[in-house]
Amino acid sequence: GIDISKLIATTGLSSYDQGFVNTSSTKSAITFIDGDQGILRHRGYPIEELAAQKTYLDVVYLLVYGELPNSSELEAFDAKLRQHSMVHPNMVKFFETFEPSAHPMAILSSAVSVLSTFYNDSTDPRDPEQIELSTIRLLAKLPVLTAYTYKSLVGESLVNPDSNLSLVENFLSMTFGHLGQDYAANPVLTKALDTLLLLHADHEQNCSTSTVRLVGSSQANLFASISSGINALSGPLHGGANEAVLDMLNFIHESGDSVQKYVERVKNKEDGIRLMGFGHRVYKSFDPRAKIVKAHADEVLRELGVSDPLLDIAKELEAAALADSYFVERKLYPNVDFYTGVIYKAMGFPARMFTPLFAVGRLPGWIAHWREQNADSTTRIGRPQQVYTGPAKRSI
Ligand code: ACO
């Protein structure tokens, strides 16, 4: 590619690239994507191998520190996260103040912003020790804050983290412990959630990660940058798509209309509707994560003994779209979020919790990118240009 900044400096040229379709904002050694071939690799390892052989925690370590951990490194990392999982008692009160109708993504981004006020000994972006401490604190506490968010949403008392449990077990126990079932000990659930978190762990310069980098480029601290990333993720064209997919499947189910009729409405751009969970800025072929999630959806529903008509509608929609020239010509394939909602629903999560789950999964990617940028002495503050379209000079 062309180094635009050099070109501009030497020629005075400028470029207009709405939505940054063709502009690289950074160099990065974390994640490689080939959208035409449906390839995704973290630090060189294919996502398929990582999903089949490694856990979410392995991948968190890989993204943040650059290499897969050996068993003693993983053990030490796990122990550190357990040690830092408790949240300041005054911070817990915060969760009593929200309206039950509040969207959990708004609660989560606020909670992460507030975290920095309780842990302000780890907010200096120029101090490597503080960066490391805020990294561990965020990784350990975001799942806890997400479980608290769930509890405040359903109006139940908050459950403290238990350092005897792993990150994923703890999360399930803190959310569903009240159901009287030992959710944390259900290997099907823990494995499925672990895999979903792993599949969301990073995806290079997507909207939320670019947001984290842009905010971080002003030397805002990690908490502030991650809180901004959560807000960027909340939109239905990004992380909010998993919730929107379930709304769409429910709508089709309840309307009693055929899948084909819905597809026709999408093609006619009726009310601007899109097939949620379809299409991707980068993948113009199958999203490799979607293939893995689809296989899991069948397995999880079977093992949980859940039969969900929404899964059948999802499969029918996918088949109808893949056979339709509208979607084929535009290279629209299912993305990672097309089937995740069906799995989360089978696990018992309300739809509004789907995007917070995405945030927990994506956190290591955001952190890895923030740290990579922060460690690069050539980083400059992000400051895009614009093409001015307002009035020429005029007088009052
Ligand atoms: N359903 C129907 N048509 C679509 C869809 C869709 N899901 N996505 C794109 N198109 C059409 C557009 O209408 C447009 O057609 P046109 O040329 O006739 O106007 C063409 O495909 C190109 O669409 P763009 O919006 O230019 O594609 P872009 O790369 O900007 O958008 C995006 C990518 C936002 C993911 C888009 O495909 C979309 O809205 N998908 C649905 C939401 C979704 O699932 N988001 C999750 C993304 S993955 C993630 O964040 C984890």
TrEMBL record:
InterPro entries: Citrate_synth-like_lrg_a-sub, Citrate_synth-like_sm_a-sub, Citrate_synthase, Citrate_synthase_AS, Citrate_synthase_bac-typ, Citrate_synthase_sf, Citrate_synthase_typ-I. Signal peptide: none annotated. It catalyses: oxaloacetate + acetyl-CoA + H2O = citrate + CoA + H(+). One of its GO terms (cellular component) is cytoplasm. Pathway: Carbohydrate metabolism; tricarboxylic acid cycle; isocitrate from oxaloacetate: step 1/2. Pfam families: Citrate_synt. This is Citrate synthase. It comes from Aquiluna borgnonia. The lineage of its organism: Bacteria, Bacillati, Actinomycetota, Actinomycetes, Micrococcales.
